[in-house]
Each structure stands twice: as structure tokens, then as C-alpha cells.
Design goal:
The chain is of the alpha/beta class. The chain has a single domain, classed as Aldolase class I (TIM Barrel, Alpha-Beta Barrel), CATH 3.20.20. Helix content is 39%, strand content 16%. The protein has 11 helices and 10 strands. The strands form 2 sheets. An 8-stranded parallel barrel has the order 1-2-3-4-5-8-9-10, surrounded by 8 helices. A hairpin with a 3-residue loop joins strand 6 and strand 7. The chain is globular, with a radius of gyration of 17 Å. The N and C termini lie far apart (42 Å). 52% of the residues are buried. The chain binds 3-hydroxy-3-methylglutaryl-coenzyme A and magnesium ion. 3-hydroxy-3-methylglutaryl-coenzyme A binds next to helix 1, helix 4, helix 5 and strand 5.
């Protein structure tokens, strides 16, 4: 498919705070707080919000009320409300909740995948094959996450070829987009370049989203590098930098959405999201999380 000319595309931000952020908070946010957070986010100009996860409530109790969150949010026209699903059961729940997009997830490292979803990479892809078929029948777009695309907490550095190989298998299933996860937030700009070079030879740039956790504070620079040097425009982020990482105690969650908005604006490209409204959404949520806000820009 080749790499397109870099032209500084307008960034497209996918908000993952209500799912990735809140799934990793120790204190389970009350339903009202989750609904208020999603509604505040949809009023900020964000076009896509990952609202929840239809995974096992025993494994991730923080997401057990995802149906109720979907039922209560005020849906704004033009905003996509998506959900994470691990299997057919999750898909049926997402469909009943009227999710506008579903996200399946696997990893580039076998050990992480086993610990996360109790399946090898190959098994996980087999498991969500029927999900993709069902989603296509329902005309729902499918996002596919590839976790540990740079570093694995168990196996260390992950080779770009391993990531490209998983991505090829996902593209064979005709997923709509791929989200490349720096799950433990360890990647630096050189790692990003090393992966994007071969990756963008097999997948269209506009189908790639980068999902940086911000454990070591590299996420904003990584995003800017991918955007400037490779023309990637899709980035996942979590308003307030909500969340953490179960594999890196004390670590922060995804890069804060407001940090990306601020950085892209400073670099001359406006993602069309109101920073003040994001900050207000985070402030509202943090009154319920039993801890002070931890987003990097607030420090
Ligand atoms: P399993 O134990 O292998 O599956 O778990 P199972 O099919 O044997 O089911 C076990 C039990 O779970 C059964 O219940 C099922 O009914 C139930 P029981 O009979 O014991 O009462 N179950 C479900 N319940 C509700 N909804 C479902 C569902 N599926 C099964 N969809 C499974 C396999 C995948 C289900 C489990 O391991 C799981 O739910 N894992 C979720 C893990 C997770 O959510 N991790 C975080 C998301 S990934 C992430 O954050 C990374 C990302 O952000 C990118 C990045 O940063 O890199 C995306
Ligand atoms: Mg994540």
C-alpha cells in the first residue's frame, strides 16, 4: 500500500478514558460519574468515545456496568460511541447496547495475551473471527487493538516484525482500523520510527491509530513524531490521563487527551476539541475517583 507523503493531517483523537482509563482505576467510578464524564466529553468536540467494555465482569469489575452507561448517555449526532469486546458474548452485549463500533483486542507478545485474555495470539484471533463477521453483517466498523507493540512487561522489547505479522492477520479479516498499543508506555521516538517504517508498508496510514500510555512521559513526543514524520493522524487518549497500568505500579494511564490537543495546536493543527471542556470533564470525574487528578499537563 506504500507510505503517503507527509502532509500534516488534521489529528483525529479517539477518547478512551471511559474504557481504558476507568478500567484501570482502583476505585470504581459510580454510574452517574461515568455517564457525566462521557456526556462532558461528547460536548467537547470529540468525534469518538470508547464508552466501555463487554468483557468478563469477574476479570474487570470496573466495566461491569457498561450496559447501563450506554443506556444513560445522551448520544450526540455525529459522535461514535464504541465498546471493547473480547468474544461473541461481548459482541452480543455491545449490539444490544447499541454501540456504534466494536473493538477486538490481541497483542504482539504471547505472554501478555495469555495473561490478559487467557489465549495465545492465534487463539484470540480465532475467537474474534466470528465477532468480525457478525459486526460486518450489522454494518458496524471494527477496530482491532494490538497491545505490547513496542515492549511487553514479561518479554521485553517486541520486534516490529512480530507486530506487522499480527497486523497482516487482522487485515486479512478486513478490520476497519488498527490501534497500535504502547501498553506500558515505554516506547521512545526511535521505537516508534522503527515500527512505523515497516508497518505503513502493509496498512494504509489513515487506518492506523497509535495508542500511547504515558508511563515515562514520552507519549506526546511519540505522537508528534508519528504525525510529523509519517503522516499518522489517528491517536487514542484519555481525558485527565485517567487510569494506570496494572503492570507498572504507580504508572499513569493513556496520554491525556488535553495534552495531545495542546501539543497539536502548538504544532499548528487544531484537532477541533475544546481543551477547557476536556479539563472540566476530568475535574468532574476526579471528584469521584478518590484521588487527585494525575494528568501530566496539570503537574
Ligand atoms: P476465559 O475465562 O478464558 O473465558 O476468559 P470463558 O469463555 O471460559 O468464560 C469465563 C467466564 O467469563 C464465564 O462465566 C463466561 O460466561 C464469562 P462463568 O461461567 O465463569 O460465570 N464471560 C463473559 N462475561 C461477560 N461478557 C463477556 C464474557 N466472556 C466470557 N464477553 C475472557 C476470557 C476474554 C472473557 C476474559 O479473559 C476477559 O474478559 N478478559 C478481559 C481482559 C480485559 O478487559 N483487559 C483489558 C482490556 S485490553 C487493554 O486494556 C489494552 C488496550 O488498551 C490496548 C493497549 O493499551 O495496549 C486495548
Ligand atoms: Mg490501553
Amino acid at each position: 500500500m506504500g507510505r503517503p507523503a507527509v502532509s500534516g493531517p488534521t489529528p483525529r483523537l479517539v477518547e478512551v478514558g471511559p474504557r481504558d482509563g476507568l478500567q484501570n482505576e482502583k476505585f470504581v467510578a459510580p454510574l452517574d460519574a461515568k455517564v457525566a464524564y462521557v456526556d462532558a466529553l461528547s460536548g467537547s468536540g470529540l468525534r469518538e468515545i470508547e464508552v466501555g467494555a463487554f468483557v468478563s465482569p469477574k476479570v474487570v469489575p470496573q466495566m461491569a456496568d457498561s450496559e447501563r452507561v450506554f443506556a444513560r448517555i445522551a448520544r450526540r449526532p455525529g459522535v461514535v460511541y464504541s465498546a471493547l469486546v473480547p468474544n461473541e458474548k461481548g459482541f452480543e452485549r455491545a449490539l444490544a447496547a447499541k454501540a456504534g463500533k466494536v473493538a477486538v483486542f490481541t497483542a504482539a507478545s504471547e505472554t501478555f495475551n495469555l495473561k490478559n485474555i487467557n489465549a495465545s495470539i492465534a487463539e484470540s484471533i480465532e475467537r474474534f473471527k466470528p465477532v468480525i463477521v457478525l459486526a460486518q453483517k450489522e454494518r458496524l466498523p471494527v477496530r482491532a487493538y494490538v497491545s505490547t507493540a513496542f515492549y511487553c512487561p514479561y518479554e521485553g522489547a517486541v520486534a516490529p516484525e512480530a507486530v506487522v505479522s499480527v497486523v497482516r492477520r487482522l487485515l486479512d479479516l478486513s478490520v476497519t482500523e488498527i490501534s497500535i498499543g504502547d501498553t506500558i508506555g515505554k516506547a521512545q521516538t526511535e521505537d516508534v520510527k522503527r515500527l512505523l517504517s515497516p508497518l505503513l508498508d502493509v496498512v494504509a496510514t489513515e487506518s492506523v491509530f497509535l495508542h500511547f500510555h504515558d508511563t515515562y512521559g514520552h507519549a506526546v513526543e511519540n505522537a508528534l513524531t508519528a504525525w510529523r514524520e509519517f503522516g499518522v493522524s489517528g491517536f487514542d487518549a484519555s481525558t485527565g490521563g485517567v487510569g494506570g497500568c496494572p503492570y507498572a505500579p504507580g504508572a499513569s494511564g493513556n496520554v491525556a487527551t488535553e495534552a495531545l490537543v495542546c501539543a497539536f495546536k502548538a504544532a499548528g493543527s487544531d484537532p477541533g476539541v475544546d481543551e477547557a471542556k476536556l479539563k472540566a470533564a476530568a475535574a468532574g470525574l476526579f471528584t469521584h475517583l478518590g484521588r487527585p487528578g494525575g494528568a501530566r499537563p496539570a503537574k
